[in-house]
Amino acid sequence: MKKFLRILAISVVLLVLAFYFIAVPKFVSLITDYDRHTFEYVTDNPEILENYGIGAKRTPGDYGFDTYREIDYNSLTDEVALNGWYMPAAKEGITQTLMINHGRTSNRLKTMKYLELVKAQGLDTLYNVFIPDLRNSGKSQEAKTALGYEFAEDIVGSMKMLNENYGQTDFVLWGFSMGAMASAVAINRPDLVEFQKENGLKVHKLILDSPLSNIKETARLEGQSMGIPNFIFNMAWGSFDKKVNGYSDKMKLSYLLNNTKLPTLILYSDGDKTTPASILETEVEGLFNVYPVLFKDCEHVKLYTREEYKERYTSRVNTFLRSNDL
């Protein structure tokens, strides 16, 4: 009997070690690693290209922004090489920039279509526009990510570059999915906030489309759908939390939007399976600076491309961006 118990105990220990050294790193890698969507990866794949909703368009020039510039620069803290498009405003002397930030497994080609909205509504007379490829995307450098934690560094690095190159001091961040979470983190993470204060940079508003609203709960639901036991998830999450310097519990909109209280327009759908509306609605309930707009039965980040919603989406964004102009 003692021999059996000893073997059982050893087996349990080996099983736990196997989970810790194999299952946990594997789950963390699902969060931090994903295929880099280069321009060629998108344009050579008809299915992905259709999902991006840009047709034959490939540059801002195809949307009437003939003076756009392509810029190489670096992220703020780790010097990851980034690349983006800058479109000067149609009027001289504009010092506010609308930055449009894509999400995970994406690149700036996917967010480029919103230039149609900007141009049609004359918002290019109020804002310069910048569309970056955040890390591991498009023409930017391959790198690991952490559900928006490093994307936030790229966003503030973009602000730094725009200030140094073009004298930009005021910003509106328009983010999608993980890019939405990153936009909110960028104005809350203490080190990034301190950098902005020291350099006279200020974000005035947020637009969040299909946002990742609570990284832990969203990851937990995804883990459950994959059949990952809770104890494995909890061990993996502890490991992931170390990668974001213990900040993961604050990566939820209930904290991020309440902490800064910036005017925030949220566009979302109850048909979104990637960033569930149930989590989002719980996160923003009772936040008076947040203006949520619900669209029915629409897939993740597809609100603008649904013909029946395009006018409503455009109207909401246009009104929000014009309200209380800087």
From TrEMBL:
InterPro entries: AB_hydrolase_1, AB_hydrolase_fold, DNA-binding_regulatory. The keyword Hydrolase applies. It comes from the Bacteria. Keywords: Hydrolase. Residues 97-190 form the AB hydrolase-1 domain. The keyword Hydrolase applies. GO terms for molecular function: hydrolase activity. This is Alpha/beta hydrolase. It comes from Roseivirga thermotolerans. The lineage of its organism: Bacteria, Pseudomonadati, Bacteroidota, Cytophagia, Cytophagales.
